[in-house]
Amino acid sequence: MENCLFCGIAEGKIPSKKVYEDDTFLVFQDIQPAAPVHVLIIPKKHIATMNDVGEEDFAMLGELHRVAQKVAKELGIAETGYRLINNCGPDSGQAVYHIHYHLIGGTKLGALVESSDSHAI
């Protein structure tokens, strides 16, 4: 997708601090972390929002959760706990219209009052 920030990151046109990558997903450090561990998990395929996920994408989203589990273990937060957050649409605070999940942990997380795209925990 032209002019999509996360597509540019996935294509290597925009630099990022990669944590994990395979043929389908990229995981990279959030540039404004809300917790000691804060990475973004994106599919390389452009899908704007959760509402745009098609039947053909459901298996891929299941795999995304496997990647989240693997990355949480690699980052040392699987045992203590973490949040996996997806924001959908403007009222949720979605800032980049390329489906993505925030994997947040590394500290005791309080009640989530604001959207993670606005970096509140």
UniProtKB/TrEMBL annotation:
<protein>
    <submittedName>
        <fullName>Histidine triad nucleotide-binding protein</fullName>
    </submittedName>
</protein>
<dbReference type="Pfam" id="PF01230">
    <property type="entry name" value="HIT"/>
</dbReference>
<dbReference type="InterPro" id="IPR011146">
    <property type="entry name" value="HIT-like"/>
</dbReference>
<feature type="short sequence motif" description="Histidine triad motif">
    <location>
        <begin position="98"/>
        <end position="102"/>
    </location>
</feature>
<feature type="domain" description="HIT">
    <location>
        <begin position="5"/>
        <end position="114"/>
    </location>
</feature>
<dbReference type="InterPro" id="IPR036265">
    <property type="entry name" value="HIT-like_sf"/>
</dbReference>
<dbReference type="InterPro" id="IPR001310">
    <property type="entry name" value="Histidine_triad_HIT"/>
</dbReference>
